[in-house]
Amino acid sequence: MKLTENQIDELFKFTRKHYVYHYDVQSELVDHLANDIEEIWQENSNLTFEQARDSSFKKFGIFGFMNVVEAKQKQMNKRYLTIMWRFFREWFSFPKLVTTLGVFLLFFCILKMPYAKYILLSLLFILVVFDLRKQTIARKSHKIKTIKKRKYFYWKK
Which of 34, 114, 130, 151 could pair with 23 as two cysteines, CB 3.0-4.6 Å apart? Predict the structure, then answer.
C-alpha cells in the first residue's frame, strides 16, 4: 500500500509538531517514516494511517526525533568548523598577512600626525555610511528571498 500526498503532508506536519523545523531534516524523517509505514502496512494491512504512524514513531524512542536532530546538528557543526578552519588558514597566507601589516603601519603613521583624530573620525564616518547602505540593500534582498521561499535549511548551497 502506498502513501498519498495528503498523508505525506500530514507526516511533514507531524515532524514540525515534534520540533523538527529544518526542511532537509524533515524530508529525511518523512522518507524514513513513509518507508516504515509502508512496511508496517505490508505486515498488517488493517491498521489505519495514524496507528501505523504512531507505531513507526515509537521506534525512535523516548526522545522522539531529538536524537536525529542532534545528530544532524553535530554533522553540520563539524562541517562549519572545517569551513572556519579553512578560512583561518587562508587568512594567514602571505598576501593577506602583508596587507594586514600594511594597514597596521598605515594607521600607526596616521596616528603620529597632528590632526589624527579628525582624520580617523572622518574615515570612520565614511565606513559607517557605506556599511549602512550595504545593510539596507542586503535586508531588502533577504526580505524578497524569504517571501519567495518558506523552507528553512541547515545548509544553503
Answer: 151
Q: What's the pLDDT at 3? A: 92
Residue 122 CA to residue 155 CA, distance in Å, equals 39
Cell 545528530 sits at which residue? 71
Matching residue, cell 500500500? 1
Cell 509538531 sits at which residue? 17
Residues 6+ apart with CB under 8 A from 14: 33, 53, 57
Distance CA(93)–CA(38), nearest Å, equals: 55
Rounded to two decimals, the pTM is: 0.61
CB-based contact 2:52 (threshold 8 Å): no
